[in-house]
């Protein structure tokens, strides 16, 4: 099994996973960029599947990290570098195409609030993918739970940020709805109750490092792809429908799994400082799911019927990609193996 550091460690930039991510790291720190375009083209051309390609997904993650400002070592002056933006567009185009080819869409409902909400509830309830939360509740070991936190740290230590890109692009009822959801995500004015802060408490309580990016070298491409998908949907105005659909599905499938995660943590003897994050989501997301399905996604479809297909795509992609991450972890754990990347291949 891959060793897990239980004490905070100094965090540096991740190791490259190929020629493309090496070039992106160099460009975002030392200024070189002359080969980014050709390397992005080559990486896409030669990849069997960009959604599970370590080099492609790390490169895309780093380019998005520059926009978020989530890794301090990345030079903020390179955020809008034309060569890097062009390379990012190449990777995004291939990634989006991969998702659209792989994700099955339900029949489109009528663009009314009620019809869209019903279709979204049908979509998430029909999901028969592997249940990571049920495994955690009944079977997960302490080592596996720490791996779970390491995977989740890539998004959850920045929880809500990808979806917040949508706020200035919405208006009326959908805008009010997303602000209501995001206000809760950001603690309702209480920094200590921000969901990212609660998750950081849980990470520390589990004996892990809560510094953002501490476990980038440990997580596989499929985990990076989940976060990259949110970032792609959020950062591109043309994908407004997709980020709204993603948020709706995310909120609609959160309450029960988080109760099961909390159950599993208590079974293993973890204290309230670890379970608080999950307990918070049991109640909050039971409320959010109605707001997200009706006031956010349903109202946006009513206001902008042209975005209906992407709303449903974003919701379906959320379930499909998160299902891949769960399947990856479960398959490893059921074989008695680590779900993390082997150190020698990092």
Note down, in words, how this protein is organized.
It is a single chain. By secondary structure, this protein is mainly α. It has 2 domains: 19-102; 113-345, Heme oxygenase-like (Heme Oxygenase, Chain A). Helix content is 64%, strand content 0%. It contains 15 helices and no strands. The protein is globular. The relative contact order is 0.16.
Tell me the count of domains: 2
Q: What is the CATH C level class of the largest domain, in words? A: Mainly Alpha
Coarse morphology: globular
Main β-sheet, in a few words?
none
Question: Could you state the CATH homologous superfamily of the largest domain?
Answer: Heme oxygenase-like
Could you give the distance between the termini? 14 Å
Output the CATH topology of the largest domain.
Answer: Heme Oxygenase, Chain A
Mean pLDDT: 93
Bin the helical content: 55-70%
CATH architecture of the largest domain: Up-down Bundle
In DSSP terms (H or I, runs of 4 or more residues), the helix count works out at 15
Question: What is the succession of H and E elements?
Answer: HHHHHHHHHHHHHHH
Alpha-carbon Rg, integer:
19 Å
* Helix-and-strand structural type: mainly alpha
Poorly predicted runs of 5 or more residues: 1-10
Range of strand content: under 5%
Number of strand elements:
0
């Amino acid at each position: 099994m891959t060793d897990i550091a239980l004490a905070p460690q100094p965090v540096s930039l991740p190791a490259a996973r190929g020629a493309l991510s090496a070039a992106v790291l160099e460009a975002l720190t030392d200024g070189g960029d002359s080969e980014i375009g050709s390397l992005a083209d080559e990486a896409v051309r030669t990849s069997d599947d960009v959604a599970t390609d370590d080099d492609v997904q790390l490169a895309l993650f780093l380019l998005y990290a520059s926009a978020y400002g989530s890794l301090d070592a990345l030079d903020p002056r390179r955020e809008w570098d034309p060569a890097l933006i062009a390379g990012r567009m190449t990777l995004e185009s291939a990634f989006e195409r991969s998702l659209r080819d792989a994700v099955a869409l339900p029949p489109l409902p009528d663009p009314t609030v009620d019809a869209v909400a019903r279709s979204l509830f049908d979509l998430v309830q029909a999901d028969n993918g592997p249940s990571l939360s049920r495994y955690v509740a009944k079977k997960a070991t302490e080592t596996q739970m720490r791996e779970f936190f390491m995977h989740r740290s890539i998004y959850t230590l920045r929880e809500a940020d990808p979806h917040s890109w949508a706020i200035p692009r919405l208006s009326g009822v959908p805008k009010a709805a997303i602000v209501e959801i995001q206000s809760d995500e950001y603690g309702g004015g209480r920094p200590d109750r921000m969901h990212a802060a609660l998750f950081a408490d849980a990470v520390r309580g589990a004996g892990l490092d809560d510094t953002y990016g501490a476990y980038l070298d440990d997580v596989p491409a499929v985990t990076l792809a989940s976060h990259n998908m949110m970032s792609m949907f959020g950062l591109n105005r043309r994908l407004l429908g997709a980020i709204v659909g993603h948020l709706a599905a995310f909120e609609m499938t959160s309450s029960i799994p988080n109760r099961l995660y909390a159950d599993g943590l208590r079974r293993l003897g973890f204290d309230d400082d670890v379970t608080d994050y999950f307990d918070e989501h049991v109640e909050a997301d039971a409320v959010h799911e109605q707001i997200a399905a009706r006031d956010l996604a349903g109202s946006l479809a009513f206001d902008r019927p042209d975005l209906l297909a992407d709303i449903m795509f974003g919701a379906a992609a959320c379930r499909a990609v998160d299902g891949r991450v769960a399947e990856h972890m479960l398959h490893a754990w059921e074989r008695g193996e680590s779900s993390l990347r082997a150190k020698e291949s990092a």
